[in-house]
Amino acid sequence: MRTIIALFIASFLFGCMNNEPAAKAKAENTTTIKNPAPSLAKFTDTLRKLNADTLTAIDSALHLYSVLAPDDSTGADSAAAALMGFIGKVVEKQNNHFINDSSDLSPLLDPAEHLTEKQRSINSVLHDNHLKTVSNGEGSVYLVPAYETILASIQSKTSAPVDRFLNLTAQEDTAASFKDAGLVIEITDFVDRLVESEQLLAQKLPPRFAAEAARLNKFYSNGLVRGADNTPALDNNTLQFTEQFRQGYDYLLAKYPSTKAAAKINVWVAVVKSGDKRKINDYLRLLP
User: Fold this and answer.
1) What is the Cα–Cα distance from 134 to 56, expressed in whole angstroms?
2) pLDDT at residue 12, as a whole number
3) Residue 145 contacts residue 131 (beta carbons within 8 Å)
4) What would the pLDDT profile of 216-230 be if each residue is shown by its tens digit?
5) Model confidence band, residue 8 (pLDDT cutoffs 50, 70, 90)
6) Is the Cα dihedral 224, 230, 235, 236 positive or negative?
7) Lowest mean pLDDT among 55-69, 137-151, 181-195
């Protein structure tokens, strides 16, 4: 889902480990609030004042959420949408800022690896700033939010549907379904994500989350029909389903027979069983 290349090392470490710049960055993102009265307007207005380029930005935003986001789930849901939008901006800026750095940070992907002192320092800085590295499947790494350090504080206020949405987003961001033009998670897990995204479409979500849930549903739905270049759903020579996707279809139809996803796959299976390559191509061409 992303094409982001090698990250950072010297510049990131310099900005994090040098006490004076770090203190300055923290000062920029620290808002002194006396006896705050939580409200969505106060939260969003204050959030806009944070500098998304600073290394402490996510931590500062989470603090604001804890003290200024409304306690009612409706207001908290909207605050969470604004917060996640800001966190996404921070992650994008960090990735873009260090996109040309050629340092090899792949050892950070495996805590059991022997890390250099510099790599250990960076790993600590990442954790402290709610960031982590993941592999893009092509030998490089990129940053994503460290959801395990942020979701608990957000979900202490949000509604159950938003909790479900955030959990699905965390799964896809941290363990992407497709990497290097291939499905890299279990096909049953992929189906579970598809059905979860479909169910979220019927839930009350803030507009930002609703739009993302719809995008994910389209992504999963088309992925289950098409597969990918390195893991196709259909063998074009035999016009038979590959074993991996056949198992996925069987799992979907057995476990989630009443879903829209199951109805769509039933049509797809019937089209393929016809053996008519023109009908197959027409079906694929009409996918949204």
Assistant:
1) 20
2) 47
3) yes
4) 999 999 999 999 999
5) very low
6) positive
7) 137-151
Task: Give 170-173 contacts, CB < 8 A, sequence gap 24+.
Answer: 170/145, 172/1, 172/216, 173/134, 173/144, 173/145, 173/147
CA 161 to each of CA 52, 68, 73, 164, 167: distance values in angstroms, whole numbers, following the listed order: 27, 21, 10, 5, 10
Dihedral over alpha carbons 93, 99, 101, 107 (to 10 degrees): 90
Query: What is the average pLDDT score of the chain?
Result: 88
Sequence-distant (≥ 6) Cβ neighbours of residue 230 within 8 angstroms: 180, 181, 182
Q: Is 243 helix (H, G, I), strand (E, B) or coil?
A: helix
Domain limits, the chain: 1-157, 177-288
Q: What share of the chain is helix, strand, coil (3-state, %, to 5)?
A: 60, 5, 35
Q: Find, among 204, 85, 101, 203, the residue nearest to 154 by Cα.
A: 85
Residue with tokens 């709610």: 130
Note the pLDDT tens digit of each residue in 97-137.
766 554 677 888 886 668 888 888 888 899 999 999 999 88
Residue listed under structure tokens 């290394």: 55
